[in-house]
Amino acid sequence: MDKLKLVEQSLINEDIPQFTAGDTVNVHYRVREGEKERIQQYEGIVLSERGSGPNKTFTVRKVTGGIGIERVFPLNSPFIAKIEVKKKGKVRRSKLFYLRALRGKAARIKEKGVDASK
How far apart (Å, rounded) are the C-alpha atoms in residues 39 and 29? Predict the structure, then answer.
């Protein structure tokens, strides 16, 4: 069992920032097109996280042209160049699948730490 944990620890990426469901993140993802490689940015709201250790994944949702697009990223993938946390969201649950049914202003998430009296 120790050998399995040793292999799992070697696969975990250490330079990933802390984020949870409700946060707006910008994922820099390496895309291979034939012989060339480029970095594609995918910015959206984290809907959920699942799994643990090297198998952990997170789902990011963005709306482009009025159409919601969701993408599942493996957290410890070598194709992820960088993850930037743009905003910390104030939510009360860990899975935000209810956002799929909401449109426009109803789908907004309040930012954590922002004073509401302004």
Answer: 5
Q: How far apart are CA 75 and CA 58, in angstroms?
A: 7
Instruction: Report the candidate in 53, 55, 61 with the shortest Cα–Cα distance to residue 27.
Output: 61
Task: Supply the DSSP string of 35-102, one letter for each residue.
Answer: TEEEEEEEEEEEEEEE--GGG-EEEEEEEETTEEEEEEEETT-TTEEEEEEEE-B--S-S--GGGGG-
Tell me the whole-structure pTM to 2 decimals: 0.83
Domain boundaries, the chain: 17-89
Regions of the chain short of the pLDDT cut 50: none
Distance of alpha carbon 86 from alpha carbon 45, whole angstroms = 10
Domain boundaries 17-89, corresponding CATH code: 2.30.30.790
- 107-116 confidence digits (pLDDT tens): 889 988 876 5
Tokens for 95, please give them: 């899975």
Q: How far apart are CA 96 and CA 98, in angstroms?
A: 5
